[in-house]
Amino acid sequence: MLSHIDPIKFSLNTAPGKEGALMVGLHDGQKIERHSLCKNLDQEDKSYLTHFAANLPLKNRSHAILLPGGRRVIILGLPPKKDFHVRKSLVAIRQIIQLARRERLESIIVAAEDYAPLSGWSGNELLERIAEQAELANFEYNLYKEKPKEKDDAPVFVKKIDIISRTKGKRAEEAIKTGQIIGEAINSARSLANTPGGEMTPRKLAAAAERIGELSGVKVKVLDDQEIKKLGMGGVIGVSQGSSERPRFIILEYMKGGRKEKPTVLVGKGVTFDSGGLSLKPSKYMYDPCMHMDMTGGAVVMNVVGAMARLKMKKNVVALIPAVENMPSGSSYRPGDLLKTMSGKTIEVANTDAEGRVILSDALTYAQKFYSPKLVIDVATLTGAADVAVGPRFSAVLSPDHALAEKLRVLSEKIGDNVWPLPLWEEYEADIKAPFGDVLNVGKGNAGGVITAAAFLWQFIKETPWAHLDIASRMTAGEDDFLAKGSTGAGTSLLLHFLRKF
Ligand code: BES
Ligand code: ZN
Ligand code: ZN
Fold it and tell me: What is the DSSP letter of 259?
């Protein structure tokens, strides 16, 4: 499932041609006449531009200019080169694309070096990031809006970007293609997550996975409620039983790493709508924090596997998505219920709103039983506590292997899909001891909600290397993200870069 926005047409050149708007990222202290996008301007345009830019207030501001020769130029003020780190660079790329869209420019020219951070990326990585971030900034979820009658009121999307770069050649072209595929995978995950709950049921999430399979050549298998029951997945059945929408267990397999390599299994939470169940959420916690996006983890992992196939990566990777709707009704699971999971352990339900961990427990068992994975990573909008703990700029990462969590953190900083580690110790197991079952689905008290949720999952994956991404805090974009409102697709980029690298 690619996103509903057309992919951008990228080209790579050493100097700007005659057509297309010039998008100048001007660092504080940099002279516009020396900028690589202005070199080939004729004398009249050049002196006009130099004169115009001479006393412009540029700090994070932008200016649109029409040159005497008819060419459009946008200048975006950027911080001085000495302060220009990776985070600022990623934002600047998204800003420049959004500026182009605001100025209704479909064909633009950018200079790669404008976005080169002080350190952290190679020349090819820079090109890859530009392509990835440009696709992200060119996305908007507008499928349910009426088409404006006037063409001038319709949103504009960038169609063509000419990147002026010192790094060129086949590897550079490939880097752009790779960044674009990653960007498209993120946008596809955003599209699915943004889809309203009534239109994104477990069945439709499974259909989306099948579509990804068709487009990428990944093998997709979908288990229905009978098969789920037969496997003994009492967690998935328990959470789903209050809804008239039947659960699905979605499996995507991409096995191009040879028969000897143990696969990495990605597990994604697929709660297509989280009302809280009988422990019903107050209205304020259902609409505003977008509980139809509670399947983001599932959307992320299916798109990661799809993108791996498009990138022709030589790896074995599986995505597992338990998909359910969490609803209150006469047939709902109840607080006090004891659910027998596929692992044999029973879950005592204290709160039906802590449903994510319940369905994920069965998926973790399934992963170990059928794939003997070398590593399992789960991605879930698991706890509101993630937002309290790390705030909206990070997802939380937890693993009993703290070195693995740190590896993910370091990588996340390079690509902007940021995660920050929280501790995970056996001591937390005391907080999820159940009076009658083996594990309780909420921690005692409110303390460390992200950690007790992770400690719960850990009970089902003690023997296999594992990391957990709680992306609840990054589920939707914030003001300073320079992304369209709605889903961020958090985790997609990090997992793809991680799988490429390790
Ligand atoms: N899906 C929610 C977590 C969530 C909240 C994600 C806000 C994104 C934004 C999850 O199923 C949930 O309801 N968790 C409860 C757990 C509690 C009952 C222990 C929570 O966070 O309040
Ligand atoms: Zn919930
Ligand atoms: Zn949930």
Answer: S
The ranges assigned to domains in the chain are 9-185, 211-430+440-475
Q: Is the CB of 476 under 6 A from ligand 1?
A: no
Residue 1, pLDDT score: 53
pTM above 0.85, yes or no: yes
Residue of 71, 94, 190, 281 marked active site: 281
- β partners of residue 317: 254, 264
For atom 5 of ligand 1, the residue with the nearest CA is 384
Give the tens place of pLDDT for each residue, 213-259. 999 999 999 999 999 999 999 999 999 999 999 999 999 999 999 99
CATH number of 9-185: 3.40.220.10
Count CB atoms within 10 A of the CB of residue 372: 11
Task: Provide the 10 A C-beta neighbour count for residue 148.
Answer: 10
* Residue 312 annotated as catalytic: no
State which of 271, 293, 353 you would mutate to test the pocket of ligand 1, scoring each by most atoms of that ligand within 8 A of its C-beta. 353
Span 98-136, pLDDT tens digits: 999 999 999 999 999 999 999 999 999 999 999 999 999
Q: Which amino acid is at 177?
A: K
Q: For 211-430+440-475, CATH number?
A: 3.40.630.10
Ligand nearest to the CA of 269: 3
